[in-house]
Automatic annotation (TrEMBL):
It comes from Bifidobacterium moukalabense DSM 27321. GO terms for biological process: amino acid transport. This is Glutamine ABC transporter permease. It is found in: Cell membrane. GO terms for cellular component: ATP-binding cassette (ABC) transporter complex.
Length: 231
């Protein structure tokens, strides 16, 4: 019953930097996910406390019930469904590879032979990179933060990064020093997660709020604010 959430306070775990979905601006967490969850909470009458933990740390905090919800550009996967319950999907995403803007050697996965690539611990980008490592003969290093991944690519400690394409595209559009060199690999949709079998009321409230946001056009306004009209 979504009404059971009224007046309650829930802890929301999120990634540290995953623009345009979550990032800091003037000391405040902003981005698509942050606007969605704040607006849902307001509509449903519950309060939230946002914790910027990092992606893998947020999932661990959810598993151990230290947070009630994760919203972190988190892809709905069958494997994760064994551990978490997901809201309705709210954004189609997938994986892509980027290299330093001044790198003209790496144009496809084949050019990765003998090289090191970087991905985020516990992410679908990491899973994808590892799945193809043998085939193309590269090594995968995992780190916790997107910002670390991008720095490693720019400093040459990794030749490429596997990350979600809306996030890579947004970074490139902000001149983050990277460029995208491979096609998009569609890889499911984002959902908000609660621990499996817990917080059914909260999940119902999230789904109710989300569908209100979609039907009122507010969802589209939020997406357009961060990604432009065709986001
Ligand atoms: N969408 C990816 C996943 O769910 C990455 C999420 C993230 O890095 N915040 O694994």
């Amino acid at each position: 019953d979504p009404a059971a959430t009224k007046g309650k306070t829930y802890k929301i775990g999120t990634d540290t930097t995953f623009a345009p979905f979550e990032y800091q601006e003037k000391g405040r967490m902003v981005g698509i996910d942050m606007e969605l969850i704040r607006s849902i909470a307001k509509k449903e009458g519950f309060k939230i406390e946002i914790q910027s933990l990092g992606f893998n740390a947020a999932l661990q905090a959810l598993s151990s019930n230290q947070v009630d919800v994760v919203i972190a550009g988190m892809s709905i996967t069958d494997e994760r469904k064994a551990t978490y319950d997901f809201s309705n999907p709210y954004f189609q995403s997938g994986i892509q590879m980027a290299v330093a803007a001044n790198n003209d050697d790496i144009k496809s996965y084949k050019d990765l032979k003998g090289r090191t690539v970087v991905a985020k611990t516990g992410s679908e980008g990491e899973t994808y990179a590892k799945e193809h490592a043998k085939e193309y003969g590269y090594t995968v290093t995992s780190v916790d933060q997107s910002s670390t991944m991008y720095e490693m690519v720019k400093s040459g400690n990794a030749v490429a990064v596997f990350d979600d394409y809306p996030v890579l595209a947004y970074g490139v559009s902000q001149n983050n020093g990277l460029k995208i060199v491979t096609p998009k690999v569609p890889h499911g949709e984002y959902g908000m997660a609660v621990n499996k079998g817990r917080n059914a009321d909260l999940l119902a409230a999230i789904d109710d709020g989300l569908s209100q946001l979609i039907s009122s056009g507010e969802y589209e306004t939020i997406i357009a604010k961060y990604l432009g009209a065709d986001g």
